[in-house]
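Write out the 3D structure for:
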Amino acid sequence: MQKILTSLGVLFVAAMLFASCEGPMGPAGKDSSKMILDYKIPKSAWQPVYDNNNLFLYYQCFIKEPELTSEIYNNGGMVAYLEVNEGGVMVQKMLPYIIVGEDNLGTYSWYIDCDYTVGEIGFYIKNSVFLEELPYMSSGTMNFRVIYLW
């Protein structure tokens, strides 16, 4: 009797594995859209900002972007990259991007990020030490690529 029940159990499991489920197709998904924009920010566009106690310095740059609609803001998102030259090869670093450096005074870091709202995107560079001039900005222009999805 035990062998019969075991055989029936195996047969039932095998039948379930090889059976296919069929039914009506579900509704089609909403089409998605994307927009890719490149931003070239010259050194002169970065505005230094100090915190309320004048203890922390960071840089910001806001760009008016009419393509950033309320549809994108309310129903979408973004992915942003900083383009950097690494050994003669251009690569894209996803934001937020943290750069760590070291010199005779110690270790320091730069934090590069962005945000957006309807009609505007903001880029930020924050540093861990009080530097008036960020070495990473010394090349002149920083190139960003932003992909908006909605």
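The radius of gyration is 26 Å.
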